[in-house]
């Protein structure tokens, strides 16, 4: 019962951190794309790059409460974040080709990427065995 409760708390912390991080990405994205009229892809890339350090610190230190060394964890997180970004960017690209509005595609891509990136962080990056040197 304790393990299940711990896992539930981890998922809830991850979702809260994700809402905050993705909310910040959306704020920056919409400010750039709608406010400054940047094209969708550069606006999306810039928004994600701006929020990366915040997302990393929230995930490592709060969501997963990991003790994996900072440098190693950051490199792994950046790799997973990049893969997640590619997944979202592909969603944006394909959706734009199908004439779906970009203001809808970005949040849809974020939702798809949440499950993918959670799995990487929970089962690969921030597990105690993620650092065999320890």
Residue runs with pLDDT of under 50 for 5 or more positions? 130-134
Q: Would you tell me the overall average pLDDT?
A: 87
| Largest sheet geometry | none
Please give the share of residues in helix.
Answer: over 70%
Radius of gyration: 16 Å
DSSP strand (E) fraction? under 5%
Could you tell me the number of beta strands?
Answer: 0
What string gives the helices and strands in order? HHHH
Q: Helix/strand/pairing class, anyone? A: mainly alpha
Oligomeric category: single chain
| Count of alpha/pi helices | 4
* Amino- and carboxy-terminal Cα gap: 28 Å
Shape assignment? elongated
What are the key terms here?
single chain, 134 residues, mainly alpha, 82% helix, disordered C terminus
What does this structure look like?
The protein has 134 residues and is mostly helical. It contains four helices and no strands. Helix 1 (2-35) runs antiparallel to helix 2, helix 1 runs antiparallel to helix 4 and helix 2 (40-63) packs antiparallel against helix 3 (70-97). The two termini are 28 Å apart.
Give the topology.
Layout: H1 2-35, H2 40-63, H3 70-97, H4 102-125
Helix pairs in contact: 1-2, 1-4, 2-3, 3-4
Q: How would you briefly describe this protein structure?
A:
The chain has helices at residues 2-35, 40-63, 70-97, 102-125. The protein is mainly alpha-helical and 134 residues long.
């Amino acid at each position: 019962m304790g393990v299940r409760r711990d896992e539930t708390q981890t998922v809830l912390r991850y979702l809260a951190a994700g809402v905050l991080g993705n909310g910040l990405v959306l704020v920056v994205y919409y400010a750039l794309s709608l406010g400054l009229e940047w094209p969708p892809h550069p606006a999306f890339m810039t928004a994600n790059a701006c929020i990366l350090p915040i997302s990393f610190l929230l995930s490592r230190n709060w969501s997963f409460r990991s003790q994996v060394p900072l440098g190693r964890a950051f490199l792994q997180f950046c790799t997973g974040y990049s893969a997640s970004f590619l997944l979202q960017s592909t969603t944006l690209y394909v959706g734009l080709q199908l004439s779906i509005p970009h203001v809808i595609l970005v949040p849809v891509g974020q939702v798809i990427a949440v499950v993918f990136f959670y799995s990487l962080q929970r089962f690969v990056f921030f597990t105690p065995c993620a650092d065999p040197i320890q």
